[in-house]
Design goal:
This protein is an alpha/beta fold. The protein is 46% helix and 17% strand. Helix 3 runs antiparallel to helix 8 and helix 10 packs across helix 12. The N and C termini lie far apart (82 Å).
Length: 430
Amino acid sequence: MNTIVNPERSQWNEILKRPTQTYKQIEQTVLEVFEAIQNDGDAAIEKYTQKFDGISLNSFEVTPTEITAAVANLDADLKEAITLAKSNIEAFHKAQRTEKIELETAPGVKCWQEKRPIQKVGLYIPGGTAPLFSTILMLAVPAKIAGCKEVVLCTPPDKEGNINPTILFTAHLCGIDKIFKVGGIQAIGAMTFGTPSIPKVYKIFGPGNQFVTVAKQMATQFNVSIDMPAGPSELLVVADDTAEAAFVASDLLSQAEHGVDSQVILVSTSKDLIKAVSQEVQEQLQVLPRKAIAEKAIVKSKLIFVETKELALELIDEYGPEHFIVATSNNAFFVENIANAGSVFIGNYTPESAGDYASGTNHTLPTNGYAKQYSGVNLDSFMKSMTFQEITPEGIQNIGKAIELMAAAEGLHAHKNAVTLRLTQLANSN
């Protein structure tokens, strides 16, 4: 890991750069696949599944028999663990429900706001080197709580045309309506445009590789919303001498093993801790099954020493981490003052892994600095806020003159007339 001591502010932008990727070629590939799906539907899905996943499928939807087998054969302890996680995630997201807001803004003018579910949502679940069944919990649970009428899930098949049984069990546990053996660009395209087999949705959720990321961004050009811009996973830890070096190292490695383009950073006011963490990272790295992946991510990661907690906070806010761990003698300072972070983990015994799986918070979070303007997925991600108003004769008389004057000032005389007609009728009826 690259150790940086007291960096100048002028260096911060360069130091905090994420691993960059060139999207030009990817965009061309995505556009090609999207156009094929628009024109050829399921035939294009079949073609690109063969090309990208190496398997030819005549039918994309997972059968009830496949789901039953997955449920029956999955390890009982793992089922219990997933069920526990689901319970905690449900509890936390149910608590996010809000009541209707109703207000009489003027006598006779009643306004209110209600939330309604997005009717059709699509969930993308990666199935590559790490099948992320936990992400199903993070997306399907709030979707069901919100009341989305149609929830479809796409995930890539393996070389035999099968889906990881843990993914099938978790999807079934969450009551997913339809599961399709489709991955990558073609999955996003199918949910964007719809095909005879795969329904079009209104909003797409879920992480993925750079091809999926670009495909999701392109989907927004075709009247489909997405959860957030996404990129490689990232973690920033702020720690001092009170932190456990072994714990900090384990957290850094937990994100580094996601992918070679993941980024992990330690910011510390202790040079001794930085040295100890660096040593722990190397020792723990040696026994990781995903050592080759984590090692490449670690090379691009950083250990940053700063003199004060105030300077540390300023630097962290500039970075805007997806995951932010606080392990210091004054955790409250960082917790109360942090402005830009996707999810915050506090204290020596709160690993980032807890949020990934079972504490109850959502792990679908903004990356690449988007924590400065985006929230992580929550119950409201699956809902729309709708406003309503009801105006009585008294109400239109109270605010009508103001509407007429404002409409006239903007040169919108039909707007003015819509009020004038009503006011005239009321005046004549008296």
